[in-house]
Design brief:
The protein has about 180 residues and is mainly α. Helix content is about 80%, strand content about 0%. The protein is built from 11 helices and no strands. The longest helix has 15 residues.
Length: about 180
Amino acid sequence: SFLYQTQADILKKMGNKKAALALLDEAIKSITDDPELIYAEVLLLDPYTDREKLDKTLKQLLLLEPNSPTYLNAYAYTLALQNRRLKEARQYAELALKYAPEQASILDTLGYIAFLQNDFKTAISSLTQAYQMSHSFNIGLRLAKALYMQGDLEEFNVVLQQLKQNQPNNPQLEQLDSLLLPQH
């Protein structure tokens, strides 16, 4: 399993994702119940173009390890990225959070799902915790958007200034800046 994963990682780094996926597919056929091998494939699959295979693979992972916060979070985040079955995605994220309550990536996923559901209060709460733990630029972006949607412009501006300080030239900040500036 380890060798397959290593080979797939090398192929991916060489820009040959297709060969990496083929290798992992072959490996999974011979080592059927190895969650790490299956998860390696999950990480390579595109959430938009490989939707059905990703769904099937994530369900298989949860059958093998139904209480894994990593796998629960992966499924929740994948569904959120696809903006579908958000109620189910939120249940996965909340369950993952029970098993790993202090994990920024799970709090981020829950916050992202809550944002997509227009539950800005939960989104802000989860994303604030995640942002304080990780100081991730992407989490900060999501937090700023949730604050703006909630109407908390003061806190929105605080987060925006932090993001600008950390990555002043990031083009994603222009979108947030435009929320404060009048349109011409």
